[in-house]
Amino acid sequence: MSLTRSARLSVAPMMDWTDRHCRYFHRQMSRHALLYTEMVTAPAVINGDQDRLLGFSDAEHPVAVQLGGSDPAQLAQAAKICADFGYAEINLNCGCPSDRVQSGSFGAVLMENAPLVADCVAAMRAVVDVPVTVKCRIGVDDQEPSEILPDFIARVSSAGCDRFTIHARKAWLQGLSPKENRDVPPLDYMLVHEMKGMFPHLHLSVNGGVTTLDETLKFLESGLDGVMIGRAAYHSPAEVLLDADRLVFGDGETRSAHEIVHLMLPYIADHVANGGRLHQITRHMLGLFQGKAGARMWRRYLSENAHKDGANEATVLQALSYVMEAAG
Questions:
Q1: Is 40:54 a contact under the CB 8 Å cutoff?
Q2: What are phi and psi of 40, to 5 degrees?
Q3: The predicted structure's pLDDT at residue 180
Q4: Do domains 3-249 and 257-327 have the same CATH topology?
């Protein structure tokens, strides 16, 4: 399946959440959805522990890396490193509103400098053969989204970016916390639809406030090319991902949450055998049975026991037994 088609449904890059264990877990539920790394800054890629920051399993594919930065030369160097690691896509973060990101002059603040973003995209495109994409907001602070977003997309697409994920909210760089910026600014889905009308040749995905596959299908049916889901895919992964291949990608295979647990066991055993800790994986699995009988005991048992010495796949099976008992 092409990367463009995989982008019909993607799981958003989320700091402290979408690490390699999370992505492997999500991949067991959907073979096709596009997965993203946590954002990693270009200087960290260049100067940091690359294996720790960028290492991933081929089983995670299709997987994209999200970079943070605003220096074209740095981003190009980092993009080349990421492409050599095997990532299928390089995504530039133009949407994160945190203070740390602002102080580094990247993330959402880049919405104020479309020419620089275009330079960054062009620099990365010049050194990698994989797609370079952008995740952005509809604007920041007192910008008028209906004016700046078309200009932003036009300038950046002319540099070689043909796929954008648009978080359909403004980011307020002053006065709102990063958490508030995910919820407080109103959503403007209509503007994203208008952008698709203005740029029919581009692949445009919508992000922000989408929590279900039903909503995803409505956006796709209305003409948008893709939907990116964030926190809902993390907290209720089965609700979002278990039926995604059948409904979004036309692939008939649907697994149960119980099957997913068993599919994770060899991965867990290998991780623990190599010195890893169980909770590093199971912290991402706590929401697997969200809304189902036994979900509370599943979460509680793993939360209380997965960090202990000797915790392994047997610990997970014990947690699963409570779900099975509750289900009768």
A1: yes
A2: -130, 135
A3: 78
A4: no
CATH of 257-327, one of 1.20.1300.10, 1.20.120.1460, 1.10.238.10, 3.40.800.10: 1.20.120.1460
Q: Cα separation of 136 and 120, whole Å?
A: 14
CB 29, CB 213: distance < 8 Å: no
Residue pair 297/319 in contact (Cβ under 8 Å)? The answer is yes
pLDDT at residue 198 is higher than 60: yes
Q: Which residue has the tokens 């275009």?
A: 118
Q: What is the CA radius of gyration of the chain?
A: 20
Residues with catalytic function = 96
User: pLDDT (tens digit, 9 = 90+) per residue, 72-126?
Assistant: 999 999 999 999 999 999 999 999 887 665 556 788 999 999 999 999 999 999 9
User: Residue 97's pLDDT is what?
Assistant: 83
Select the CATH number that applies to the domain covering 3-249 from these four: 3.20.20.70, 3.30.413.10, 3.50.50.60, 1.10.3720.10. Answer: 3.20.20.70
Cα–Cα distance, 150 to 61 (Å, whole number): 32
Res. 327: pLDDT tops 90: no
pTM for this entry: 0.95
CA dihedral 88, 121, 39, 37 (to 10 degrees): -10
- Domain map (residue ranges) of the chain: 3-249, 257-327
Pairing status of strand 163-167 against strand 226-229: unpaired
Query: Residue 221 burial by CB count (10 A; 0-12/13-18/19+): exposed, middle or buried?
Result: exposed
Under 8 Å between Cβ of 324 and 293: no
Burial level of 94, CB count in 10 A (0-12/13-18/19+)? buried
